């Protein structure tokens, strides 16, 4: 199973993510977003110098996913961290509880590719395509 | 990529294409796209016209759901979209403004000519690059306390001028005098403040840039003279917005609007069109926080203006005044405004959403500065990086047809991955230098994503609004040097 796929859009960029559970789906979507933001090749260092808890609620799964990604984007910009480790403990109806970790941005080491302004609701979708396989789609405003 | 749009487009005349309101259920008015026959073929290539039809479904929309020739597929609203809603029973939509609230452009004129700037261009660009922070997550050089930031939200560029970073005449020649009324900092989240507080006075990344240009073609000498523009004159174009501050305000508001839609029983074809009645608690809160972000953006362009002046002073060894550095005008192209327009023969207060569209008020409009009152508003249309800019003038026709609005720029027509494929192995900065345009960029990746061929031809876009009478071409300025995040 592919974790995620980046999709074309005239003005911006989209993301499709997969997971065998809702938790895995949310983690993979987050990973995909950080691949859009930065060049994460060779960025597998187990040493993390940032960790945070994320707890969110929303009105449905799409809203939850959009909120989740926007929350991580906020952490990226304010804490100046590249996140690449997502322990999604629970995605329920409709809340997410997770621990996220990553590294403080070091311009010498990390290559930031683009400014992602936000995750949008444009064609946002979370679905169970068959039992045990979940798929999500979102678009980002760049 | 998006699929080709198959809906009906009825040709009204050479520059106007109508989507009749019976095209889909829920449309309250017609859609109208301004474009040439040639451009319409490209416009049909994705779902942007469907978005024009979706906007026509907004409760309380008056006039038509409009789209300018730089229309392209956006979120909820198309980029290049204009829609006015009634204040009493209409809605306001954060999606109709976008994430980069008051992204806009400001043009500075100088009394310098190309021959004086060319020999020092390289140094001038380096000094500007050093003085004006740019790039992803770039931070400003001045740190503002939360109470100072509240003043920025309320007083915008005027506060920056009061602090000594500019001249009173700068804000006279800025839309809303650089301080739009109605701001309420209490409606701005702590998150927006955190995200924006270090970013005031920075260009950012993406399609934002600062460009040194030279006036090459004068289309209307009488208007150019009144604007103080002449052939060979060096001008500076600043393109940026409200940075992370505005992005977060939009994100927060869209979140609120999702539940507001359920609360007020509003159902629309696209969630990104999320909205609330203008007169509701949620609608007002969005408007008041959006104004804070709009004012932040004007303050941002004002601070950058100050550093442009300082950079020119350093390189030319003369005062900015001696160099004739003055703000021609400053326009917003992502904003919602409370304006008075004629609706069905009567004056009415409406909320004009401009998402990737520019205000283009015609002559005699009372909000215009004295200097431009007789002639109409300067309309600034940047191309993509390195293709130069047009200055136009607002018209009475725009007042009658488009709530005083026109196009905003070139409009992207190539996805980033396609731009990446096409630019692989190329040195974009060197290619541009060969064409006489010096480029300094924080990121080579950004340069490749922003290659000129990824954008529509801005001169075609401007041609349509000129021919359709929405605004008239005054001058074209060709680029000399670009700073890119």
TrEMBL record, chain A:
Keywords: Calcium, Metal-binding, tRNA processing
Source superkingdom: Bacteria
Limits of the Archease domain: 4-142
Xref: SUPFAM superfamilies: MTH1598-like
Family matches, as Pfam families: Archease
Keyword Glycoprotein: no
Record family assignment: Belongs to the archease family.
Protein name, entry field: Archease
Species per Swiss-Prot/TrEMBL record: Thermatribacter velox
Automatic annotation (TrEMBL), chain B:
Cofactor(s) the record lists: Mn(2+)
Statement: the UniProt record of this protein carries the keyword Kinase: no
Enzyme class per UniProt: ligase
GO molecular function, one term: RNA ligase (GTP) activity
Keyword annotations from UniProtKB, A to Z: GTP-binding, Ligase, Manganese, Metal-binding, Nucleotide-binding, RNA repair
Gene3D superfamilies reported in the protein's UniProt record: tRNA-splicing ligase RtcB
Pfam families: RtcB
EC number: 6.5.1.-
Keyword Signal recorded: no
Cofactor detail note: Binds 2 manganese ions per subunit.
Catalyzed reaction equations: a 3'-end 3'-phospho-ribonucleotide-RNA + a 5'-end dephospho-ribonucleoside-RNA + GTP = a ribonucleotidyl-ribonucleotide-RNA + GMP + diphosphate
Family note: Belongs to the RtcB family.
Record text on subunit structure and interactions: Monomer.
Name under which the protein is recorded: tRNA-splicing ligase RtcB
Lineage: Bacteria, Pseudomonadati, Atribacterota, Atribacteria, Atribacterales
Gene: rtcB
């Amino acid at each position: 199973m592919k974790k995620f796929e980046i999709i074309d859009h005239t003005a911006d960029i989209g993301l499709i993510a997969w997971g065998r559970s809702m938790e895995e789906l949310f983690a993979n979507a987050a990973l995909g977003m950080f691949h859009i933001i930065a060049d994460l090749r060779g960025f597998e260092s187990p040493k993390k110098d940032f960790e945070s808890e994320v707890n969110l609620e929303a009105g449905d799964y799409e809203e939850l996913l959009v909120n989740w990604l926007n929350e991580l984007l906020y952490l990226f910009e304010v804490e100046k961290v590249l996140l690449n480790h997502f322990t999604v403990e629970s995605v329920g109806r409709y809340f997410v509880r997770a621990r996220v970790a990553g590294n403080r941005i070091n311009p010498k080491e990390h290559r930031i590719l683009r400014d992602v302004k936000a995750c949008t609701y444009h064609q946002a979708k979370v679905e169970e395509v068959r039992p045990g396989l979940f798929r999500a789609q979102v678009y980002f405003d760049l | 990529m998006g699929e080709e749009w198959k809906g009906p487009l009825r040709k009204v005349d050479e520059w106007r294409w109508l989507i009749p309101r019976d095209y889909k259920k829920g449309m309250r008015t017609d859609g109208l796209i301004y474009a040439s026959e040639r451009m319409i073929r490209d416009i049909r290539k994705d779902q942007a016209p469907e978005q024009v039809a979706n906007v026509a479904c907004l409760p309380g929309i008056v006039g038509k759901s409009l789209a300018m020739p730089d229309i392209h597929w956006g979120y909820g609203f198309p980029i290049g979209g204009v829609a006015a809603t009634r204040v009493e029973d209409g809605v306001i939509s954060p999606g109709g403004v976008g994430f980069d609230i008051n992204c806009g452009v400001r043009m500075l004129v100088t009394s310098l000519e190309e021959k004086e700037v060319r020999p020092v261009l390289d140094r001038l660009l380096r000094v500007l690059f050093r003085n004006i922070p740019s790039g992803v997550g770039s931070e400003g050089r001045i740190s503002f306390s939360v109470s100072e930031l509240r003043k920025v939200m309320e007083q915008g560029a005027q506060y920056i001028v009061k602090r000594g970073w500019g001249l009173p005449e700068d804000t006279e020649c800025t839309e809303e005098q650089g301080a739009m009324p109605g701001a309420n900092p209490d409606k701005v989240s702590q998150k927006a403040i955190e995200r924006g507080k270090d970013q005031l006075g920075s260009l950012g990344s993406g399609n934002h840039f600062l460009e040194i240009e030279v006036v090459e073609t004068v289309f209307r000498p009488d208007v150019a003279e009144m604007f103080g523009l002449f052939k060979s004159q060096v001008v500076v174009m600043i393109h940026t917005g409200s940075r992370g501050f505005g992005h977060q305000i939009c994100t927060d508001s869209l979140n609120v609007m999702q539940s507001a839609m359920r609360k007020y029983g509003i159902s629309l074809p696209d969630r990104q069109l999320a909205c609330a009645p203008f007169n509701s608690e949620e609608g007002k809160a969005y408007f008041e926080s959006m104004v804070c972000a709009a004012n932040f953006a004007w303050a941002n362009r004002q601070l950058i203006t100050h550093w442009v002046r300082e950079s020119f002073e350093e390189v030319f060894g003369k005062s900015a005044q001696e160099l004739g550095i003055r703000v021609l005008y400053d326009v917003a192209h992502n904003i919602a405004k409370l304006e008075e327009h004629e609706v069905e023969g009567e004056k009415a207060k409406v909320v004009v959403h401009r998402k990737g569209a520019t205000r283009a008020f015609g002559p005699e409009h009372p909000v215009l500065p004295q200097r431009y009152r007789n002639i109409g508003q300067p309309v600034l249309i940047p191309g993509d990086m390195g293709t130069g800019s047009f200055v136009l003038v607002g018209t009475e026709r725009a007042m009658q047809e488009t709530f005083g609005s026109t196009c905003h720029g070139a409009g992207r027509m190539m996805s980033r991955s396609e731009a990446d494929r096409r630019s692989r192995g190329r040195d974009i900065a060197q290619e541009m230098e060969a064409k006489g345009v010096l480029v300094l960029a924080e990121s080579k990746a950004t340069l490749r994503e922003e290659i000129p061929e990824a954008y529509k031809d801005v001169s075609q876009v401007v041609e349509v609004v000129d021919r359709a009478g929405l605004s008239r071409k005054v001058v074209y300025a060709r680029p000399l040097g670009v700073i890119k995040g």
